Amino acid sequence: MHLLSSKIKFDEQTRGFGENLLKIRGWRIHSFEYPVLDVEFTFPQRHGLRVRMICDNWDDDPPSVQLLSQCGDRLVTVKRDPVGVINEGQHPHTGYPFICMRGSREYHTHSSHVTDHWSNYRGKSSYDLGGILSQIWRAWMKT
Amino acid sequence: MDKDQSVGEKDHFVEVSVVTTSGSYPSQGFEQAPSRQKVKILLEAAARHLGIVDTSGWVATANGKEIKIDLSFADNALSGQVEIDFGPREGGGGNASLVF
Question: Above 70 in pLDDT, residue B49?
Fold first, then answer.
């Protein structure tokens, strides 16, 4: 994917994140600047979770998703959700807990899922940047 | 029109805003919809307006609770001004093995 094309898609798919959405979902934006989408999930009486999506080569490649503390440190332990989207194991490539879900680079590059290609999902409404982030958020809400 | 009649007619409508990561519908304020109208009719209009091609498997929530989109606003006990959060459910967990 050409850098400019990738950036245009990134910008198109993040400009719909309006104030109402952020308020309803308790999202706090840390970065909207290509290629980084960094959003903190918040909820009353809970520790927040920051999800940093590295979107280089979007959308030829799915975003690499990093799980961070509220102050931006990479998490080495996470709480698993019931369906296993938030995976507390160490990813073989990164060594960190990861998002084990269609649409994350760590899923599609994991030895358990390399045959489930990103091309099966690329371009679908649930797998644009907002869709992927929404799926992760809903998983976090169930932890 | 007396006051009681005005209030009664107002009760037959809800004011709805649909919020997604692709934007909101309407873009500002609220859309008026009959209380007895199925929720999904407004969600379909929102999807068309926002250019969302496929909403299969999506979930709609209001006030933090999932609503049944095949039922009406009234059947979902929604009244007044309603903000609907509309988007995909949590992803299917890969459940990748923890042993590498």
Answer: yes
Instruction: Reduce the secondary structure of chain A to three states and give it as a string.
Output: CCHHHHHHHHHHHHCCCCHHHHHHHCEEEEECCCCEEEEEECCCCCCCEEEEEECCCCCCCCCEEEEECCCCCECCCCCCCCCCCEECCCCCCCCCCEECECCCHHHHCCCCCCCCCHHHCCCCHHHCHHHHHHHHHHHHHCC
Domain that holds residue B54: 3-88
Tell me, what CATH number does B19's domain have? Answer: 3.10.20.90
Complex-level ipTM: 0.94
Per the CB < 8 Å rule, is A134 touching B22? no
pLDDT at B10: 58
Taking contacts as CB-CB distances below 8 angstroms, the residues of chain B near A124 are 53-54
- From the candidates B21, B55, B98, which should be mutated to test the interface with A, based on the most A CB atoms within 10 A? B21
pLDDT digits (tens, 9 = 90+) for B9-42: 556 999 999 999 999 999 999 999 999 999 999 9
Averaged pLDDT in 10-residue chunks for chain A of 143 residues: 94 96 97 97 96 97 98 96 93 96 96 94 96 97 94
> Is B95 a domain residue?
no
Q: Which residue of B has its CA nearest to A129?
A: B21
Q: Which domain holds residue A54?
A: 3-141
The domain spanning residue A23 has which CATH number? 3.10.110
Q: Is residue B98 part of a domain?
A: no
